[in-house]
Design brief:
One of its GO terms (molecular function) is aspartate 1-decarboxylase activity. Heterooctamer of four alpha and four beta subunits. This is Aspartate 1-decarboxylase. It is found in: Cytoplasm. Keywords: Autocatalytic cleavage, Cytoplasm, Decarboxylase, Lyase, Pantothenate biosynthesis, Pyruvate, Schiff base, Zymogen. The chain has 116 residues and is mainly β. It has one domain: Beta Barrel (Barwin-like endoglucanases), CATH 2.40.40. The chain has two helices and eight strands. It has an eight-stranded mixed beta sheet with strand order 2-6-3-5-4-7-1-8. Strand 4 and strand 5 form a beta hairpin. The longest helix has 7 residues. The chain is globular. The termini are far apart. The model has no long low-confidence stretch (mean pLDDT 97).
Length: 116
């Protein structure tokens, strides 16, 4: 049997933009992606603290150390600039794997989305 477990989490970052005319996805500062162990193209869940919206999209890298968090395409309708969101990625694991697995969870600075 396999279960779905938390693999990665970027806890409480500020949305820096929403681009309705882009084809889709969420653009995330490459440094944040690496720190959270989230891969380009990986499916992520987004939880919007400000309005309670929950939705899924995929991650694309933005400029390193820029603090960029931009929702693109239809997802742009679910956020506003300066909303606080949580970005979550899950993985499938066997029960045995899940017992010892430790997720990558990061807590960036909410004001500028930096790791320091």
């Amino acid at each position: 049997m396999q279960i779905e477990i938390l693999k990665s989490k970027i806890h409480r970052v500020k949305v820096t933009g929403a681009d309705l005319n882009y084809i889709g996805s969420i653009t995330i500062d490459e440094a944040l992606l690496e720190a959270a162990n989230i891969f380009e193209g990986e499916k992520v869940s987004i939880v919007n603290i400000n309005n309670g919206e929950r939705f899924e999209t995929y991650a694309i890298p933005g400029p390193r150390n820029s603090g960029v968090i931009t929702l693109n395409g239809p997802a742009a309708r679910k956020v506003q600039k300066d909303d606080i969101i949580i970005i979550i990625a899950y993985a499938l694991a066997t029960m045995e794997e899940a017992k010892n697995f430790k997720p990558s969870v990061i807590f960036p600075n909410e004001e500028n989305n930096s790791l320091t």
